[in-house]
Amino acid sequence: MKVSVITTVYNVEEWLERNIQAFLKQTLKDSELILINDCSPDTSKDIISKYNDSRIKVINNEVNVGAGVSRQIGIDNSCGEYTIFVDGDDWLEEDCLEQMYNYAIANDSDIVSCNVIHH
Description:
The protein has 119 residues and is of the alpha/beta class. Helix content is 34%, strand content 19%.
């Protein structure tokens, strides 16, 4: 597994579908999406349940622990050589993971960053 994408989920029902769809459209297929539902009171859990893809792991926290602890839970359950955090209300361009991964490998990088576009 090349890249693990970790997304914490809490009150992001408005954007979550786009977040998940953007992951599924990635050109880098050797990746996983770890969704940590942090006891979100909205319909996020219902949105997540619509997806049946082996690359998506879902973790449902028993109590709300916040984004930081939820991200650590994601790290503890990840398999990728690299990890990226993508907030539930954000999404990646289709070739983002592939470009970042290829750059990291070509330059023997521990950390790679990219531009952010505010909508």
